[in-house]
Amino acid sequence: MDWTEICITVEARDVDRAGDIAQMVVPYGIYMEDYSHLEEEAMEIAHIDLIDEELLKKDRTKGVVHVYISPEENPAEAVSFLRERYQAEGIAHEITTASCAEEDWINNWKKYFKPIPVGERLLIRPTWEEYDGSAGDDRVVLSLDPGLAFGTGTHETTRLCMQLLEEYVQPGQSMLDVGCGSGILSVAALLLGAGSAVGVDIDELAVKTARENAALNQVEDRFTAVCGDLTDKVTGQYDIVAANIVADVIIRLTKDIERFLKPGALYLMSGIIDTREEEVLAAIAPRFELVARREEKGWIALAARLK
């Protein structure tokens, strides 16, 4: 099967940041086009001032990040992840895909998305796959149709957060899921015994998908989905607040998150690449005590409580 090429066009000034975020999707198969300093770099690197006419015609105001997704991976989730992260970082962007029609790759990856055990108690079952109980009959099965929303459980950031939920969710607790994507974390918490969950996402498609996944798992009566930017449409206080986003947004969210936390509440943070962990820890250190840390393939998830 063909690979999927994802092309992300951004302003030239944002190309390095856009590339850093794109690198989160895959540890391989990425390159960047940036012609904003073409003449200077040609002289500095190649020591020539004669540049091909086609290169000179390139748009100097834009940069393009190219990401390549293998047939076994989920390009729909990768695109959703990138859109969500670029919106959160305020990076204007245009994303296109190549190698096969969009309606094909949206469905082609599904053949590789099989039931996935997560932690000790959970199992994610794609709605188009049967599950025979081979991973253990005592697992809680979360049925999922992610569509184009981020969150299938295949990405380390989501799995790490689910493992922390499995460890800390108590019966009857309330949860706020900031940047809920497919709703996978909210649904997981409810299936693990939480009494209610509110999921908020800036993407209307994600909000719609989250509601549908709550209904699939028969927890829609305990789930509320809100379309908004971080917590701007959220009210109330919660026993658990989860943010599976990126380091910069977690740092920004932390400044105002206390008003949404009940006494003794748990603050779960995921989507943190290891090179940004110290910055997140510094941001939470004045008011939070770290109670758990999980790591997988360069991704970090943290759990903290107010001091």
TrEMBL record:
Presence of keyword Chloroplast: no
Record-level GO cellular component terms: cytoplasm; ribosome
E.C. code: 2.1.1.-
CDD domains reported in the protein's UniProt record: AdoMet_MTases
GO molecular function: protein methyltransferase activity
InterPro entries: Ribosomal_L11_MeTrfase_PrmA (IPR050078), Ribosomal_PrmA_MeTrfase (IPR004498), SAM-dependent_MTases_sf (IPR029063)
Highest taxon in the source lineage: Bacteria
Main subcellular location: cytoplasm
Broad EC category: transferase
Compartments (UniProt record): Cytoplasm
A Pfam family: PrmA
BP terms from Gene Ontology: methylation
Keyword annotations of the record: Cytoplasm, Methyltransferase, Ribonucleoprotein, Ribosomal protein, S-adenosyl-L-methionine, Transferase
Binding site for S-adenosyl-L-methionine: 158, 179, 201, 244
Protein name (database record): Ribosomal protein L11 methyltransferase
Organism listed in the record: Candidatus Caccousia stercoris
